[in-house]
Amino acid sequence: MDRNLMSVRAALMSLAAFSLAACDSGGAPGSRGADGDVRSLPPQRVEVSAPEGEATRYVVLVGGTAIGATELTWNEDGTLSIFHEFRNNGRGPTYNEEIALDPYGYPVSWTIEGATTFGNAVDEAFAIEDGVARWRDSTGEGEAELTGPAMYVPQNASPYQAAIAARVLMADADGVIDALPGGELRLTQIEDFGVAIDGEPVQLTSWALSGASQNPSYILTDGAAFMGVVSPGFAVLAEGLESQDAELRALAAEYGARRYEDIQARTAHRYDGPVRVANVRVFDPQTEALTDPVSVVFEGERITAIKAADATADSETVIDGAGGVLVPGLFEMHAHLGESSAALNIAAGVTSVRDMGNNNEVLSALIERMEAGDVAGPRVFPSGFIEGRSPYNSNNGILVGTVEEAVAAVRTYAEAGDFHQIKIYNSTSPDWAPALIEEAHRLGLRVSGHIPAFTDADAMIAAGYDELTHINQLMLGWVLEEGEDTRTLLRLTALKRLPELNLESEAVQSTIDAMVERGVAIDPTFAIHEALLLSRNGEVSPGSVDYIDHLPVSSQRSARSAWAAIESEADDIAYRGAFEQITAALAMLRERGIFMVPGTDLGGGLTYHRELELYQIIGMEPAEILAWASLGMADYLGAGDELGSIDPGKYADFFLIPGDPTADLKAIKTIAMVVANGVVYFPEEIYPEFGIRPFIEAPAVREG
User: Fold this and answer.
1) Would you place residue 214 in the very low, low, confident or very high pLDDT band (cuts 50, 70, 90)?
2) HSE (CB half, 13 Å, CA atoms) of 254?
3) Least confident of 28-37, 278-287, 345-354, 611-620
4) Distance between CA atoms of 621 and 627, rounded to whole angstroms?
5) What is the mean pLDDT of residues 597-610?
6) Which pLDDT score is estimated for 22?
7) Do the Cβ atoms of 245 and 235 come closer than 8 Å?
8) Which end of the chain, C or N, has fewer beta carbons within 10 A?
9) Taking a C-beta distance cutoff of 8 angstroms, is the pair 654, 671 a contact?
C-alpha cells in the first residue's frame, strides 16, 4: 500500500476534520449562552467578512516541506469560498467549499465537492431550512430539528472548518457547543506566546479543539484571526508563518506530550512487589494450546513464576483472572507509530510494533518518552526509511537524490544502532537498489520495501530484498504495462486489473519460485487491502462491523465510506474481484511456504485484530495465528529469548481475555487487562480517553 493510513488518512485528515463526540448529545442541538439558556436563533444568511488580519492563503506542510495550500475567498454576498488541496507521496485530497454563516458565525449552508486522498468522490451538503438541519455525505443523508443553533462538522473539509468552530466557541460561555451529526465540540485555551513574521513580532494564542473523540486539533489564532493548525509532523499555516513551522510543530509535540502524560498518569498501574494474575489459562505458542489453570507472577518488568491457580503469598497484589486466558503480547509488524496509536495498541494487546518508516526525530522522541514510562506505548523495532527525491516522494525518513546519498543513508541507520532493517520506498531509483542492499547486508541490516517505480518484484528479489512490503506491490508487477508510474494512485487503482490475472501463469509462478528459492518474506497488510477494495459509501466496512458501535461519530462516518472511487458497477465488481485474487494469492504463497508477517498500515489496535482474523480465510487456524503473531514474530525479529511467550524470565507482556481465542479468534477483542513491560493497563480506562466505548470491565484487583 503506501506510507500509511496513520499519517495520510489519520494524522493529516484529523487536522482537516476535527472529531465529534462518541454519542448523541441527548436531544435537539442548541447552544448555551452566557446565561446558560439555549439561544434560539432564526437561521439566516448574512454578510460576513474575514476577521481583521486574517490570511487568505494557508500553506500545507509535512515535516517543513510545502505540499499544498488552503485558499480563501470572501465573496461580495458574504459567503466564503475555499479551495484546499495537497499532495504527499503522490496523493492527497482536493476540496472546493461554499459556506454561508449566520450572525453568530454558525454555518447555515455548506457544500463541498472534490475527492478524498484515495480518490473517493466528495459531494457533501448541509443546509438549515425552517428550523431543520439536513445534510448529505458519503454515508447517506441525515436531518435534525433544531431548538437552537448547532455547529455542523463536515465529513471532508479544509482545515478552515476549525476556524469557523473556534470563533463560535470563543464567544460561548463555557466553550462547549452541540454538534451535528451528533455530540459536542469544545475549545480549551492553552497559552499565549510570541513569534516573528518577517521580523515583526506577532502574539499568538494556541487552543485545543476537541470533542469526546480520539484526538484534539491544536489551532493557532491572532485575536479572532485564524493562523493555522499544527501537529508534530504536519501543519497548515497562514502564509508568512511558514518560517516558524519547526517551532510551532515542536509546540504541538509538547501539547501532545502533556496530554498523553496525563493519560498515562491516570491509566498506568505500577504495583510494588510481586503481582499475581490468579486463576488463568495461558496460551502457549509452542504447543498452540491452552494450559490448565495456573497463576502467573511478575515483578517489575519480568515474569518470575508460573504456579498453581490457587497459590497465594503474602504481600502480593492479586489480579483475579476469573478463569480467563492470558495471551502473550502481539506484534504489529507494519506500524507508523504516533502517540495515539501507541496507546491504542497497548489497549488492544499489541505490546510490540515494527515501525516501517516515520519522521525519525519524532519517532525517536516518542520512543524515549515510552521507555521512560511517561506515555503508554509498545516496544518498537524501527526500520530505516529511504526515499528518493521526486515530485511524488514521501516526506519521511531520509530523502536521497543519488546512489551515494542512498548508501550514506544506509550507513546512518546502521551507525544509529536501533534499526534492524532498511525500507526502500517508491521514488528510490531501482538502479540504486543493488548498492543499497549490498551495503545494508554488509552492515547487518535486513532489506524490505515497496517496489520502486518503473521496476517489478522480480528485479528487487534478484537484487537481494529480504522482504516485500504490501501484497499489492508484489502483484502489480504481474498486471502493469512498461513505463506506468506507481508513484501515483495507480499503485492502488491498477488493482482493478487483478481479476483478469491467471495466478497459474508462468509470470506469477516464476516470481513465487524466486521468493521460495531466496527465502523472501512478505508483509501483506491484508486488512488495508480489504478496506481499500471492499469499503463502500453508506455501508459498514467489513473490517469494522464488530466494533463500529464502540467508535466516535467521526470514526463511524469513516467506516461507512469508500476509500477508492467506485464510479460504476464495473468498478464495484473489479475491486471485489481484486480482493478475491489477493486472497487467492496469499493462500498460494502460504501453501508454497513463503513466510508472512502480520501488520496493518492502519495504526494497529482494533484493526490489528481484523488483520489476524483475515488470515483464517487463507486456511490458518486461530491457535496457529496467535502463535505466529506472538512468538513467531518475536523470533523473526531476533527477540524470541525475551518476548513472545509467557515464561519465567521473559518480559511481562501479555493480556487477559475471558474467552477462548483458540476456539474463536474474535475473543481477543474483549481485553480486560494488558501488561506491557510489567505495567498494568485496563482498556476500560484507556478507551474513553479516545471516545471509544470499552468492550469489557477491568478485573478485580486486591493490592498486597
Assistant:
1) confident
2) 10
3) 28-37
4) 10
5) 97
6) 29
7) yes
8) C
9) no
Q: What torsion do the CA atoms of 39, 44, 46, 52 make, to the nearest 10 degrees?
A: 30
**Residue type for 676, please?**
A
* C-alpha distances out from residue 447 to 263, 364, 410, 466, 512, Å: 36, 21, 10, 5, 18
3-state secondary structure (DSSP) of residue 451:
coil
Kindly report the number of other CB atoms within 10 A of residue 666's CB atom.
15
Distance CA 478, CA 576 (A): 18
Question: pLDDT tens-digit profile of 289-298?
Answer: 999 999 999 9
Sign, Cα dihedral of 691, 361, 383, 641: negative
**What Å distances lie between residue 267 and 271, 482, 657, 674, 703, CA to CA?**
13, 54, 18, 11, 16
* Burial status of residue 197 (CB atoms within 10 A of its CB: 0-12, 13-18, 19 or more): middle
Query: In a 10 Å sphere around its CB, with 0-12 CB exposed, 13-18 middle and 19+ buried, how is residue 38 labelled?
Result: middle
User: What domains appear along the chain, each with residue ranges and CATH number?
Assistant: 6-241 (no CATH), 329-536+569-642 (3.20.20.140)
Q: CB pairs under 8 A, 24+ apart, for 584-591?
A: 584/503, 585/471, 585/474, 585/475, 585/503, 585/508, 586/471, 586/524, 586/526, 586/615, 586/618, 587/618, 587/619, 588/503, 588/512, 589/512, 589/515, 589/522, 590/618, 590/619, 590/620
The residue type of 482 is E
DSSP character for 269?
B
Strand extents, DSSP E, 390-466: 398-400, 421-424, 446-449
DSSP of 125-164, one letter per residue? EEEEETTEEEEEETTEEEEEE-SS--EE--SS--THHHHH
* Per-residue cell: 323: 478463569
Grid look-up 478463569 returns 323
pLDDT tens column, 643-674: 999 999 999 999 999 999 999 999 999 999 99
Q: What is the pLDDT of residues 186-198, one digit of tens each?
A: 999 999 999 988 7
List, for residues 447-460, the tens digit of each pLDDT value.
Answer: 999 999 999 999 99
Arithmetic mean of pLDDT over the chain: 91
Collect all residues with Cβ–Cβ distance below 8 Å to 440 and sequence separation of at least 6: 410, 414, 421, 422, 446, 447
Choose the weakest-confidence range: 26-40, 80-94, 550-564, 678-692: 26-40
